[in-house]
């Protein structure tokens, strides 16, 4: 998309309504200005008239996808919220089934009455008012603020014009993780205990994002500015993840086993169509960016896999021009959470 097109998108009535009604980072003055400009935009009336005509011609059942595309185009917060809400309608029953399975597989509770309790470090500094305010706003943000992430650059974006799906090829710099071979609450608590002082130096480290999960394991990304101390818990390992190219596809809502399977299939199919090879023996993994308090339809989740890719190996591809199949390169970021008009 050209800079002019991006400017048109950012000044559209949909983008202004996003900022006025759905952004937690907009000031009251800016919120009012954007709402006023959106309502005064003649394109709003034109689009509403077009949407009404579509419903008259096709009816609500067949016409509503066209109406959604017209009134809430991809890249707007309103569109991503709608996609997230639609997704969780399927995910909630799946989550219930996943929880039942976890209860059946869970280990029996350990009786500590006759044995020493495990060491934990539970002392914390009281958060500052600004931090509390930011944490509250993070409930409504798809990408939380105030948390460090590993460095990466998007070297290519694959987009399917038919399905509106997109896949980013990201080149990550080297980073370190704390990893444990357990999942869900058990794995999270084990790793949280490590970064909050359960280590040989009793060092408290900053929480980062995202949390990485793969089959049977969970990893916390470690602050690159700190040399990680040795864990006290033998089930925690420190690993160095080398620089690599990773194919990433985003999805909203809840991370259920069925949703992961669906997204994995879409990711691998997209890479096959784009003729991008998955690294030998590489298994897809999940990245989760939000706290459990974040409203479900705003959550940023990603399915990812390491790929074999060298920059420039396919030559330059003109913007929006197909490159031999239904997938083509675009310059701009296409992720639903990372568009130009987002929270």
Describe the structure.
With 343 residues, this protein is an alpha+beta fold. The chain contains 8 helices and 11 strands. The protein has helices at 3-10, 13-22, 28-40, 42-71, 77-105, 129-138, 184-195, 257-273; strands at 152-160, 166-172, 175-180, 211-214, 217-221, 236-241, 244-251, 277-278, 285-288, 301-308, 327-330. Strands 1, 2, 3, 4, 5, 6, 7, 8, 9, 10 and 11 form an 11-stranded antiparallel beta sheet that branches. It is globular. The chain starts with a helix and ends in a 13-residue tail after the last strand.
Shape: globular
Largest sheet: 11 strands, antiparallel
Order of helices and strands: HHHHHHEEEHEEEEHEEEE
C-alpha-based Rg, rounded = 22 Å
Low-confidence stretches: 1-8, 109-118, 314-343
Number of strands: 11
Overall pLDDT level? 82
- Strand proportion: 15-25%
Distance between the termini: 21 Å
Structural class: alpha+beta
- Residues in helix, %: 25-40%
Number of helices: 8
